[in-house]
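Objective 1b: paired records.
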Amino acid sequence: MSDKSFNVKKSTLGIGVALIFVFIVGFYLGGIFGVGGSISEAETTQKIQSLLSQNSPDAAFQLTERVVENGIYKVTGDIVDSQGSEQVTVYTTVDGAFLFPQIIPLEQESQPVQSQPQPTPTVPKSDVPVVELYVMSHCPYGTQAEKGIIPVSELLGDKIDFSIKFVDYAMHGKVEVDEQARQVCIMDEQEDKYFDYLNCFLEDGDSERCLGVAKITTSKLNDCVQRIDAQFKITELLEDESTWVNGRYSQFNVHKEGNAEYGVQGSPTLVVNGQQISSGRSPESFLATICSAFNTQPEECLETLSSVTPSAGFGGGAGADSDASCE
């Protein structure tokens, strides 16, 4: 890829200095990032593309994911031109007023923080561990965790009580609450087809295609979706912005009781035998974590699964193991 698109090639100045110059010019001469309420992913893409086009008319910005970190948006995407593409990460305020090429941690040298070793949490044990993974259907880190844990569930089968549940607020709008209602109903009424559907959905997020792949009975599904929509006021809460969490995210209360009981605050959250547990997101890491919750480990715990962490978001491939989440 050419070095004109955001000057992303690693030069002596580096991407940070180059982008700082570009965005300062944009703020003071163009006012591209306007002040207002929180902006959508589409608006974020449009604003970055507008700024990029001023410097490299033949380049395009393709957003991969946008998550909240420390009160601001972390935006990851690809800058593409005729010679290739390169991934970049930038940060914006939630209203789109400012964009930063990087985050520089600030430390108070006069009051140093003493790092204390954190004890490894002990996983409560049982004969049949209860394993709950709380996610948002369109959170890239939630889908990453789902891709990592499904092989473990398939290996251990009924030796664990496994379920996927949903965080009680949705960060990705109507498409997310609709998908979560759909998955709740498939789990409740067509459980034997759920993993066929979910494995397909994790490939590209195309729910309509995956309903056919998994042979879901759509009439039964639609009746269930209407029923839980009325029961949990899913559409009503989506349309009434006065009820949104922090004024930004629609409530999704199907699994609200578990969210409250376990203190779920983001996607993904792993709960084993009633306790939040941290785990790596590769199948091998999830297997080790879950197997530590058995009173007596079954022979399946001796199996070796992939140690590769799945990519975040939809699709295949490998990703980085981290504790990043949508929250």
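Objective 1b, second protein:
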Amino acid sequence: MNLPEELRYTKSHEWVKDQPDGSVKIGLTDFAQKELSDIVFVNLPQKGDPAQAEESLADVESVKAVSDIYSPVTGIVQAVNEELLDTPELLNETPYESWIVQIGEISHTEELLTAEEYKKFLSAQEGD
């Protein structure tokens, strides 16, 4: 499984990439996009919207279901990846390059996992 070491991960299968300005970019993990299968639609928040840690921030629709994307941080949406509106399949094709939102003015961060911790979490889930 592809798990870039420089990213941090959530138990709800989002990845978090720190940006030089103190903001973070958020996307779906390789595990999440495989579980969802073919993603056909992305519902994005608006720039300037508040984001609350551990609450729904956006959602994606696949051929299987609609799934929420949870914010790993509390802050303000600084940017959204509008390219996903026309080509949501990028989340399947390049999950770690296809960020969904960028959040700044961060005031709270949920507990994030390293790549190794996330890998162990996934292994434990598969054992259930």
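The chain has one domain: 12-127. The beta strands are 8-9, 14-18, 24-28, 39-43, 50-51, 56-62, 66-70, 73-80, 101-109.
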